[in-house]
Design brief:
This is DUF3467 domain-containing protein. The chain is of the alpha+beta class. The chain contains 2 helices and 3 strands; from the N terminus they run H-E-E-E-H. It has a domain of 61 residues.
Amino acid sequence: MSDEKKPQNPKGKKGQINIELDETVAQGTYSNLAIINHSVSEFVVDFVNIMPGTPKSKVKSRIILTPQHAKRLAKALNDNIKRFEKAHGEIRDYEQPPMPLNFGPTGQA
């Protein structure tokens, strides 16, 4: 055995991840529609911003997740919605007419 010490992170916690948030990513992208497709090995979530009176919209961001991460995301969203509603009241889900989405065939991996 050598006398060298194993490096530790500043707080001495094992398994801690250092995550950077780029300035342009930190500004975020607005989305009022999410389109979700899945295959056996992945979930694909396309975030779209549809504006009234605009005949065409583009996908602003696409996130690809493993099924396990998709399930964790769904659980985390559900937990956060419950906490939000406890603090601010129920989020109303307004009825909207179905939107025809013709983005081509569903995705496959």
